[in-house]
Write a structure and sequence with these properties.
The protein has ten helices and 13 strands. With 329 residues, it is of the alpha+beta class. The strands form three sheets. It has a seven-stranded mixed sheet, with helices on both faces. Helix 1 packs parallel to helix 5 and helix 4 packs parallel to helix 5.
Length: 329
């Protein structure tokens, strides 16, 4: 697999940075052969596991990061979008490849992105095994695309199985994250508030999976489509309800978006995370224990529950006294 174009003057710098993310021991080893890498796996350590792939990027937010020069935040956005999606089915990321596209040559920006990405990878034990940097004058700003590969035991995949009575635990977002940016920029223009990086929920979710994997009935990363993403864990036997009286209130940016954009409550909950970046459906008997664990890592609260129904999503708006309904089945 190709690592980086060796004709680029800073390729060697990048290679040295990403090599620091490679594991020194464990179930796989990475070797460098000039500008190629080879992954060697011990079959005995892999027979009970499945690999799960995820690819995503930062989209419209890239042009804003480029303008504001918030390159480290851009790297976190790209990492988080993929890691948060993998962990929702119980898969833990262990390696990734990146594709960085810039509107013009900028060594400082590229090295800042790679250094920030490598720092995150070392923290979460993810190896960077390759990537590509492209300079395209047709790109407005920048884009960072990542393909991340996760591991999960065959017997430990989390498949949605929400039942009436199950509780919903919400994890606070850091702000707008990486979805709805096209819409938000039209309303708020290029506010620095929009560059806040996406929260990474990996460590907290891994912590609850140690002892409560069997109590988890489904997880949702609140990204594109916002609260309509709850359809991923809903079924024909239950309605999912988000209540109004919980502690994860929308940040001020969301109230500004609603007021200045003259958006309905339904538009808000279909487009933005409104202060909740991740949702865990959990057996009601384990809900308090799970909440206490996740609180060590993120501001969180019980935000709702599942009840007998036919597949509706009901959201008591925190912007008014209205209730928003989504039919998902």
């Amino acid at each position: 697999m190709s690592v980086y174009n060796s004709t680029k003057p800073f390729t060697e710098k990048i290679l040295k940075i990403i090599q620091k993310t490679w594991p020194k021991n464990g179930p796989f080893r990475i070797e460098r052969v000039k500008n190629q890498v080879i992954i060697r796996k011990n079959p005995k350590n892999w027979k009970d596991y499945l690999e799960v792939d995820k690819t995503d990027g930062i989209g419209t937010k890239g042009s804003l990061h480029w303008k504001m020069k918030t390159f480290s935040f851009a790297a976190q956005d790209a990492f988080a979008m993929n890691a948060n999606d993998l962990i929702r089915i119980g898969a833990e990321p262990y390696r990734l490849q990146n594709h960085i596209m810039l509107q013009e040559e900028n060594e400082k920006a590229i090295l800042s992105i790679i250094k920030s990405l490598a720092k995150l990878c070392k923290k979460y034990k993810v190896a960077i095994t390759g990537g590509e940097t492209a300079i395209l004058n047709t790109v407005n700003g920048m884009e960072i695309g990542i393909t991340m590969i996760g591991l999960v035991k065959k017997s430990e995949i989390i498949r949605p199985n929400v039942k009436a009575g199950d509780k919903l635990i919400g994890l606070a977002s850091s702000g707008i994250h990486s979805n709805g940016l096209t819409f938000a920029r039209k309303i708020l223009h290029d506010s620095e508030e929009l560059t806040k990086p996406t929260e990474i929920y990996l460590e907290g979710i891994k912590d609850i999976l140690k002892n409560h994997r069997k109590d988890i009935c489904g997880m949702v990363h609140v990204t594109g489509g916002a609260f309509t993403k709850l359809k991923d864990i809903s079924n024909k036997k239950v309605d999912i309800k988000i209540v109004r009286n919980h502690k994860l209130n929308p940040q001020s940016v969301f109230f500004s978006l609603k007021e200045k954009g003259k958006l309905s409550d339904g538009q808000m909950y279909k487009t933005f995370n409104n202060g909740i970046g991740f949702i865990i459906a959990v057996n009601k008997n384990a809900a308090e224990n799970v909440l206490n664990i996740i609180k060590r890592h993120h501001k969180s609260d019980i935000i709702g529950y599942a009840e007998k129904g036919n597949g509706k999503i009901k959201i008591e708006s925190q912007f008014s006294n209205k209730t928003v309904f989504f039919k998902t089945i």
